[in-house]
Amino acid sequence: MEAKWCFLATMALLAMLVGVVNGDGEVKTIVKIVKGKKVCDKGWECKGLSAYCCNQTISDFFQTYQFENLFSKRNTPVAHASGFWDYHSFITAAAEYQPHGFGTTGGKFMGQKEVAAFLGHVGSKTSCGYGVATGGPLAWGLCYNKEMSPSQTYCDDYYKYTYPCTPGVSYHGRGALPLYWNYNYGKTGEALKIDLLNHPEHIENNATLAFQAAMWKWMTPEKKHLPSAHDVFVGKWKPTKNDTLAKRVPGFGTTMNVLYGDQVCGKGDDESMNNIVSHYLYYLDLMGVGREEAGSHEVLSCAEQLPFSQASASASSS
């Protein structure tokens, strides 16, 4: 009887391990029950056992052709980072953050919207589009992977003991959500376990790393008492009374407040803010979600929001 029970238990465990690779080389989901909760691992795209990996992952609803549609001009001869950015690098980077809810929180619809929101910021910050550009100004996201003609080296000596500048190194803008300043390279490098303080050029040489740095910024609160852009977008952040008085509400508008503060928020009809919103709406349309699902003006905009933080002289370039 005991032997039979052991056999059945073993078979049940094997049934929960829903394969790693099938005959065609396709990675399948590993499912386990840990402390009474279902957790999953989807191999290279959603690494590590997590409840979020049991949901649809990004490649289930956002595929190569959609990435190509969103960034249709990025590999044209006039694009400054032609040949650098690609879909595989995006998904590989996302594999590190999907187990924490990036694109996997709240089901397929919310996942689609979050990917569009994140890429809306990315597209706006890396665009070389302009009013009469071929295909329109919103088709030119991921045109850059670095600042082309930096006016300074972005070394802030205030951080000389924590993130000292390396002689001869420039900390100008690089990446999908461009990093500026020695302290931002230092903090991001610590999180990603890459020496970006001494070698910031790693960001412009590796598209996966560039996307990872941007996703880390999206998923991580700037300060302990502040939410992350991810949290305010997917509804995990609950506004306080002070937030309500400051007109900060969950949604896309507040992601701009988290990421840029008074650089774009609380300034009324700001051109930079409108450009970010326009990219988000454009990507929602191209992904088949539709801009009508973006929410009200209050949710989309941060024009009337009081900023979470005031930019310092150095942060104003970040």
TrEMBL record:
Domain Glycoside hydrolase family 19 catalytic, chain residue ranges per copy: 66-292
Source organism superkingdom: Eukaryota
Recorded family membership: Belongs to the glycosyl hydrolase 19 family. Chitinase class I subfamily.
Signal peptide from the UniProt entry: 1-23
Organism: Salix purpurea (Purple osier willow)
Disulfide bonds: C155-C165, C265-C302
GO molecular function, one term: chitinase activity
Annotated InterPro entries: Glyco_hydro_19, Glyco_hydro_19_cat, Lysozyme-like_dom_sf
The protein's name in its UniProt record: CHITINASE-LIKE PROTEIN 1
Keywords: Chitin-binding, Disulfide bond, Plant defense, Signal
GO biological process per UniProt: carbohydrate metabolic process; cell wall macromolecule catabolic process; chitin catabolic process; defense response
